[in-house]
What does this fold into?
Amino acid sequence: MQELPTLPAFIAEHLAKPRSTALAERREGRTRSLSAADAQRTAAAVAHGLRARGIARGDRVAILAENSVDWLLADFGILFAGAVVVPMYATTAADQLAFILADSETKLVFAGGEAAAARLRAAVPNAPPIVVFDGTGDDGFDAFMRSAPAPVDEAAVLASYRDGIAVDDLAVLIYTSGTTGQPKGVMLSHRNLVSDVTSAFDSTTAGMQLGQTGLSVLPFAHIYEHTDALGYLYNGIVHYVTTPDRLLDDLRAVRPHYVAVVPRIFERLIAGIIGNARAAGGARKRLVPWAITVGTAYERATRDGGASAWLRAQHALASKLVLSKIPATLGLDRLVYFVSGSAPLHRDTALTLAAMGFTVLEGYGLTETSPVVTVNRPNDNALGTVGPAIGGVEVKIADDGEVLVKGPNVMLGYYHLPAAEQPFTADGWFQTGDIGTIDAHGHLMITDRKKELFKTSGGKWIAPARVETAIRRSIYVGQVLVYGNNRPHPAALAAPNWGLVRAKLELSDDMTTEAMATDPRVRELMLREMRKETSDLARFEHVERVAILPRDLTVEDGELSPTLKIKRRVVEQRYADLMAHAYD
It folds into this structure.
């Protein structure tokens, strides 16, 4: 078997392939693009600048920024220099910034802008040197790259930077989001990441073609999108960069072939389509929701035994009038497929997207596995599962239902944690903490987090993620957390989709979300929706109580992770009284 390259060698190899556009980004409606040669040249300049600043092989260099082309160029340049990348979310809390920089012994930080640099200096008075992407002074990115002239034989110098690096050496030190305490540093080697990319993005199974376009929405500080970036590079995909707040405009401008997102974005997309139709009034108010309902029913029926003649006729009409027009309206007429990960995707949501003409390939992974463990494929897409294991990776289920993983993508371990606290079995299997099953065709199904299961007073175990995923099918539910340990039945803490609820109940535009949260009409609507969406679950999983949040949970307030997952422990502590009152 051929030995894998290190990341700097891998990146250099694929940037050496001529492409007029390799990286691009959209900012305020304007596009900035770089060729593969430009990206290689800029990443090399970053590497020379780092070495000129005294950064040596194995030193840690952090990136604190929102998504941008510069983020990727800094990442490539750090690796070219033989250093270790420490990605940090732009929204990382001050105390965690201080912890990560100290724990990782970071020697230099790339910051996204002056505001990020100022926040970093305030959080860490003795912060390491900071280079600002948008800076115009001596600490700016351009000035930094000009500080070290390119050597005459640049290829030889770059090779010398990585000389001595082994594929099992540390490449990326990425910290978990710290939902219950201090974040843990996940040590990912060159082998971990290159093996994961080459297996998960193998063109014969992923189906990607040179010159097609991928759009990055999720933060690069998350391993999901960090690996996607390497996967696009590996397949010669034109890589556009955006952020969720610009997504709809940029979809129309870029018309991507591939987009990797989290289920929450799909839920917002579907709710937005229906909400806009209802707001438009007239025939659209009823026609669009009807067409989506028919399309979803048709997709379910065709997979579960066959559609009736009446349903086929309805679907033909719904497709002609509405469904066939949705992709072009959204800028997704060239889309080959979405990839969904990071949280469970309900089968009904995937069916609704299929009704609109979209293929969704759900996968599964963790930061600790670089991240891809399993993923559905275009020619083997089993909705409701997260697919089979990628090449070289083994998955099995422990006696207690926990998913165990072994393969070249599994992390070196948690930084600074003793061996006794590392999540490995005696025979080397990584313990994911997730509960799942594997079907007869080798497709994995994740049912919940092992530590989040709770038991009702009637002795029934509840998997909250299963119930939450069902509830989020309602367009009126924005965010939801299911709870009820030692209670007779589960309850839900929820933030409504405020705009749709306001329109549905004809509430005043002046009514605040705090006032809406205490309005009995809102509570009744939410409870009715939850009862409807959980009616197809087991009786003991039906939600019978609801607590309404006074506002949306946010990343900025530490209640959501950067990929929009609810930080359960934080929210449970912050809203303990409100949750308890639901049972009054």
The chain has three domains: 7-21+31-183, 263-451, 453-581. The domain at 7-21+31-183 is CATH 3.40.50.12780 (Rossmann fold). The CA atoms of residues 54 and 409 lie 31 Å apart.
